[in-house]
Predict the structure.
Amino acid sequence: MSQLSVNHLLGIKDITKNDIQLILDTALNFKEVINRPIKKVPSLRDVTIANLFFENSTRTRLSFELAQKRLSADTINFSAASSSVKKGETLTDTVNNILAMKVDMIVMRHSSPGAAVYLSNKVKAKIINAGDGAHEHPTQALLDAFSLQEKFGDLKGKKIAIIGDILHSRVALSNIFCLQKLGAQVKVCGPKTLIPKYVESLGVTVETDLRKTLEWCDAANMLRIQLERQDIKFFPSIREYTMLYGLNKTMLDSLSKKIVIMHPGPINRGVEITSDVADGSQSIILDQVENGVAVRMAVMFLLAGK
């Protein structure tokens, strides 16, 4: 099985366990490549990729751009802030104009859930969803799974906690789908107001007590509060949130076992996680960043081969 079952990467929900494992195995080879003195391979020479970011992004965009360069692809970068979208151009028109330039693949981040799916039905290029609203962020879940496999090997039976703003997080949803397909147990933890009503129907358990969650898990993925997606107040104050759900060194050291600490970034230091935890020995946050390039190389390489 050396081919994906899908033509696009729209969400983890749409891909199989075999697809996930194929991407992670391929990423392992690419991680070896990017740690060589000469980091480039000609795998995607003559493939043109457009990066369409209708929403702000630093790490994801840079990670995709670097992955494309490592694969020798030709790239064009599009940022909505400085484009004709501001003049009222529709998503389909924008994309068709870019496709007229003979683009083979599109990496897109958009604030509307389902934007990538909509696009995949309209255009011939391969689509990679780099985050659609509060819906999915598949490459983040894949790099998180890759980072966990580096730490633990097989994830079957491993206990992974996702802590924080589950309601507005596309990372949480993609992670839940991905970890479950790989056989892990998932628990979400946060204030009741930030946990979606449907989440238990996905087969995850819900906990509102941070300490209980940390004692249960093998790894904790700390999410930031997505203030930019909140139109009403979901908790009294940031200070109160930090007191109840912020992870600090004192709490981490008081646990009965050592757990792995993750964060998809950007980190709000001193809110959901303190600096000494984020930069500490149990954190794999910078490994996640490095692995993001290898995983995105794998995704683009496999889709280009479809």
About this structure: The radius of gyration is 19 Å. Residues 285-305 form the longest helix (21 residues). The chain has two domains: 12-136+289-305, 138-285.
